[in-house]
Design brief:
The chain is α+β, with helices and mostly antiparallel strands. About 20% of the residues lie in helices and about 35% in strands. Strand 2 and strand 3 form a beta hairpin. The longest helix is centred in the last third of the chain and has 8 residues. It is globular.
């Protein structure tokens, strides 16, 4: 579930380097399990400059609303319109089709400071 090609943050977002300094970002399987069935996703607009740790969106479930935090700094270059239309994709495929947005990184080396899959698994127990 928690692949070695992904990096993680303690706010339960994941990052996967795709190509040319662009990363996909989503919520972890652990996060979607805690939230339950998602009913609404609000994502940053394409072209938005974001800094690490910024609140950049919201995911709402039948149980709760939770802020999304940017795990990296850069510019939003794409959002997943399919997840906006059907938020349950982030429940059923949180690490694949349920990705939320893509960011062109300011500095790819920032990924080195994020948690590995093993460290994230230790965090969530």
């Amino acid at each position: 579930m928690y692949s070695n090609d992904m990096k993680f943050v303690d706010t339960h977002e994941w990052v996967r380097l795709e190509a040319d300094g662009v990363v996909s970002v989503g919520i972890t399987n652990h996060a979607q399990e805690l939230l339950g069935d998602l009913v609404y996703v609000e994502l940053p607009a394409v072209g938005t400059s974001i800094s690490t740790g910024d609140t950049i969106g919201v995911v709402e479930s039948v149980k709760a609303a939770s802020d999304l935090y940017s795990p990296v700094a850069g510019e939003v270059v794409e959002i997943n319109d399919e997840v906006v239309a059907d938020p349950t994709l982030a429940n059923t495929e949180p690490h694949a089709a349920g990705w939320l947005f893509k960011v062109k990184l300011v500095d790819v080396a920032e990924l080195d400071g994020l948690m590995s899959a093993d460290k994230y698994k230790a965090l969530i127990g």
